[in-house]
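Attaching the record inline, Q. Sequence:
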Amino acid sequence: MQNEPLAYKMRPRTIHEVVGQQHIIGSATPLFRMIEKGHVPSMLLYGPPGVGKTSIANAIAGSSKIPFFALNATHAGKKDIEQIVMDARMSGKVLLFLDEIHRFNKLQQDTLLPHVENGSIVLIGATTENPFHDVNPAIRSRCGEILQLERLTGDDIIQLLNQALADKERGLGHLEIDITEQQIEKIANASNGDARKALTLLESVYYASDEKDGVTIINDNAIDALAKRIGVFGDKGGSHFYNLLSALQKSVRGSDPNAALYYLAHLLENGDLVAVCRRLLVMAYEDIGLANPSVGAHVQAATEAAVKLGLPEARIPLATAVVEMCLSDKSNSAYKALDSAIAAIHEGKTGDIPNHLKDAHYAGAAELGHVGYKYPHDSPLGTFGGWVQQQYLPDELAGTEFYKPVIAGEEKRMAAIYEKLKSFKK
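Structure, as predicted:
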């Protein structure tokens, strides 16, 4: 136990010791009551790193007294699974915690799944990835519940830190440590809701601080220096990264520059500059669109500059682009109109191109009836340019309107032109 990390030693031993995640395993939840009565269902635990997936599995094992085995799907092989199956046959039932379950391959599934189905193996799978995207449906169907864990609150983390400081058997309670409430709060804030990081940081800060007369005096500079090393929560390839991209776009769409810059900061700290630039460019046309067409060019220039500059300088043009998009007029009418046209095609609402619109740049086109096209530029219409009354859609779709203008920004002027031209049609 002496050489084990503090975060490992402080894992809850029973469901009564779990901190946080009260919506999943609090004393009032069905899962808590089931486990207390000796019934453990198969389940999937989904959530970011450090929020208690492994801890909850260990706590359930400690409360249920079912023989417990833990495997990581990244490293487990067929022999490991076969050994679990053999143990299940001998003991009648085992509890298997399978971390990184989204990496489970088909061979492992084929070996394990029948025994999960008949109840001889109770499976607790854990994943940081969205189980509806990354976990095989065969596994999902055999796990009665998909439980989404949340990042721990600041109060949860502070509670864990205080428990570690007080626990004389597993924590640091046997040591003389001078630490203030403000320092505990600073460690909690630096962990960003990750219990493992919080306890690891506390342990590191203890060893990095000076001792005087047998008392270790926690140093603020040690907290600040070590907090920078624990990294930003999330990774550039996982579900959390895509959640950040989604939050960024929805914040821009909602015209909240503070939230948008916060999520941009998270994304840039994760380091995938190309993915961020691609999303910003899509947003310029998806959410700003015709209400402010110049934004597309501005964002294009900003993202090109960002890629050329690289991080950390790339943050400067990207911040400008994000704030401009947040505070711009917004319209999604153009791409929504296109989606409506695509949907119509998929629904079979098609027809022949009118003859006068078909290609006529070859000898014999007139014999095929490809005649009658009126050249709009030959019919000036005030300052608009040129317009002429003729049908462009197939007969079967004549009169259909896919485009529904949004009366915002520059599109307000375009909408007026659109309505005026409609009034000219006979």
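The mean pLDDT is 88. The chain has 19 helices and eight strands.

More tomorrow.
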